[in-house]
Amino acid sequence: MHETVSLPIAPSDRSEGSEYPVVGSTTLLPATRRWLLLPPRRSVGDLPPRPAGSVLVFQTDGRFVVAPSGAGMLKSEIAVHAEAAVVISTRREMVPAIVPLPSTSRDCIVLEVGFSCRVLDPISVLEAGCFDARPQLESYLLDDDVLRMLGARDDVAANPEVAKRILARIFARMELEPPELPGISAVVVGTRVKIQAEIPQQRRASEDYYLHQDETDRLGASASFGPVGGDFDSSLPGDGF
Q1: Mean pLDDT on 37-57
Q2: Where is the stretch described as Disordered (predicted)?
């Protein structure tokens, strides 16, 4: 590791690898009757745990519906006929996105960006299939021509201005073009720019990226960028977000 340039990132209480905003889900069997003459109802044990600051959503007949409030929820028609139950966090939470920028040199820039996220519309989140926001946040960072050009410079380790320009670019783009996640607001609140020696799988991933880019340009189509493969996080210190 050669250098780190950063703006503070607040700690996150989310465990590493945990999904956001979906924090629990389960498929449901048909609701049963407790007594012959009573209507069917759900049991609390049928549903996934619902932590504070979350909302329960049922899926029924291919649509999503927020669970009704009140004591009658378990015997409501929505709950009784639901095929699945999903718990969505509605708290504002820090969600980390860690991505290496494609590199043509032996050094690689790794971005660690903290996004402050909050669910505004849980139904839109589920209809879009956004069980975990991190892949879209990572794609947002990589889908930036300026960042990719800065990361591909051959003086990333020798010139500290490169890392500073990357920091400035991330926050400038946030103002002009914030990430668009269905039903979720996301704001960059902290960034680390780390420069580390490139490892072989990073080199192969970068070569695959540029081969894909060359082929796309040759065909005259719009390039599609996503997270680059490889285990890039193994050499990073464990101070987390």
Answers
A1: 89
A2: 1-20, 222-241
Whether 169 contacts 147, CB under 8 Å: yes
At 218, the amino acid letter reads R
Show me where the domains of the chain are located: 3-18+91-219, 22-89
- Longest Cα–Cα distance in the chain: 79
- 156-189 pLDDT, tens per residue? 888 889 999 999 999 999 999 999 999 999 999 9
Residue 14 has pLDDT above 80, yes or no: no
Structure tokens given for 1: 């590791």
% of the chain at pLDDT higher than 70: 73
CA 227 to chain centre: 11
Q: Give Cβ neighbours of residue 2 (< 8 Å, ≥ 6 apart).
A: 107, 157, 195, 196, 197
Tens of pLDDT, residues 190-212: 999 988 775 545 444 433 433 33
Correct CATH for 3-18+91-219 of 2.40.360, 1.10.287, 3.30.479, 1.20.58:
3.30.479
Q: What is the mean pLDDT of the segment spanning 42-46?
A: 91
